[in-house]
């Protein structure tokens, strides 16, 4: 009587490739070998004949012992159990499993598209993917910057279909990558840009700046805003500082929503001393910062220059720096008390 030489090896193959299931029979004699699809009880082949109308099925044998069924361009629907059957009485059979793996594919819906949100709102980025095995979803920031979790912890990546960002901040703005992988190449990703809108904010590092009449000086403010703000300078009474002449204003983008505002004044006359306001304005609001520019008498500068010349090469002490500042402020105070007195 015929018998099976080996169990049918289970086969795993990616979708679109060809799969081969092999059944080895000894002493077949007058009997016949057939291949069937178990779940539908469909006869696929008998001996060297293909019975099914599925043109992707083929059969080959070697020495009347090895019967190999080929399924071309396999589809996910081909996954399942297949039976090799010998028509003895009683019938003899054995089964093998075909597993069809499918690389991941990110779905357009419900996967998020680019988002624009207000700062402080709650944000959920979604990513959905198909594939077999079921894909794992990983979130990363395109820039490589860590993702800040709700508890304040910073991590390089987050797993899960949803990336939840409560009370979104401007620091969360940027591109996020949703990466789907399941061990079947290739992994795929989608880029989702998160734009955070917020009203302007201005930071002034030096709110009090001293300068010598006849020389030049640069005033600087740092602004943050998105959408990007309109930036300009005014005097303390609100009149806009006109460009050109002794005034030179420029705005340099530092990164994304940050900018540096600079106002260079050269040469200084008595009229230029006083308060200046750096103003930033966008569709969500406006804000300003104030810098007071005071006059340093030339003799105060000469004192410091002489001090530094005498101590050249020595480490400058904190007290000398404080003295420099306080002396300049004292001189400034004298000038403010005697506005008509020129030194």
UniProtKB/TrEMBL annotation:
Signal peptide: none annotated. It is found in: Cell membrane. Residues 310-343 are annotated as: Disordered. GO terms for cellular component: neuron projection; plasma membrane. Coiled coil: none annotated. Its main location: membrane. Keywords: Cell membrane, Disulfide bond, Glycoprotein, Immunoglobulin domain, Membrane, Repeat, Signal. InterPro entries: Ig-like_dom, Ig-like_dom_sf, Ig-like_fold, Ig_I-set, Ig_sub, Ig_sub2, Neural/epithelial_adhesion. The keyword Thylakoid does not apply. Residues 320-331 have a biased composition (Polar residues). Residues 2-87, 104-193, 200-292 form the Ig-like domain. Gene3D superfamilies: Immunoglobulins (2.60.40.10). SMART domains: IG (SM00409), IGc2 (SM00408). This is CG14010. It comes from Drosophila busckii.
